[in-house]
Design a protein that fits this description.
Layout (H helix, E strand, L loop, with lengths): L22 H22 L6 H22 L5 H24 L5 H23 L7 H22 L4 H29 L32 H4 L3
Helix pairs in contact: 1-2, 1-3, 2-5, 3-4, 3-5, 4-6, 5-6
Length: about 230
């Protein structure tokens, strides 16, 4: 009598969003590991040293490198979607606090960064893990402005004081963008509207799972590949 069970076939190799051990994810992990020494040298390194700007610069560059490698190597993953923005937000918060301790940055922008990030993490985090929100181009621009401003401040307190003013202006501009980006993500998570709503392609043979559109705009198809990184 034939068996009613079907023999198990060979294990399916992890591909696409199933993968986690990828080069881009390794670069994101490096960003986490660089954070503690970067904050330490901001607070403790003496004037005239190139160590703080170089270390913070490498830390900031990894945000671009992991996304670039994910596209180049076709190694975008769901894990990368989640941990890349987390690395950005935690990193910017801790580096901003370190700059406040070092006296290079007023505590008001530091408080704005921390409060907005805590609110967004608490409210938007569950929606992001469920794939209901996506990173916007404005959000990516906000992060880039923050990174450049932070690097300019670190350069200013280390070897080139002339960059302090530029850094402070950019961080304040980044804070204004940070508030608006936070509102955008909160709107997407709570109301299901706005540019941060994820409009994913329907699965094969299934109905489209499309969130409500923002008035005046066309829905965009979001995939794990172009959602990586903020």
């Amino acid at each position: 009598m034939p068996s009613s069970s079907t023999p198990a076939g060979p294990a399916r190799p992890a591909t696409g969003a199933d993968r986690w051990a990828t080069i881009p994810n390794l670069v994101t992990l490096l960003r986490f590991l660089l954070l503690a020494p970067a904050c330490w040298v901001i607070i403790d390194e003496p004037d005239g040293s190139w160590v703080p700007p170089l270390l913070v610069g490498v830390w900031a560059l990894t945000d671009w490198i992991d996304g670039f490698l994910a596209r180049l190597l076709d190694q975008a993953t769901r894990l990368g979607e989640i941990i890349d923005p987390i690395a950005d937000r935690i990193g910017i918060m801790l580096v901003a606090i370190s700059l406040g301790i070092a006296g290079a940055l007023n505590w008001v922008p530091v408080a704005i960064i921390v409060v907005v990030d805590v609110l967004v993490a608490a409210i938007v985090g569950p929606a992001a893990r469920q794939g209901r929100t996506r990173v916007t181009l404005f959000g990516k621009a906000r992060t880039a402005v923050m990174f450049i401003g932070i690097c300019a401040l670190v350069l200013g307190i280390s070897v080139w004081p002339q960059s302090l003013l530029v850094g402070r202006v950019l961080v304040w501009a980044g804070c204004a963008m940070h508030i608006w980006a936070g509102v955008t993500y909160l709107r997407a998570a709570l109301l299901g509207t706005g540019p941060a709503v994820a409009h994913r392609a329907p699965p094969a043979g299934g109905p489209a799972d499309v969130a409500p559109e923002d008035s005046g705009g066309e829905p965009t198809v979001d995939t794990t590949r172009d959602a990586r990184g903020e």
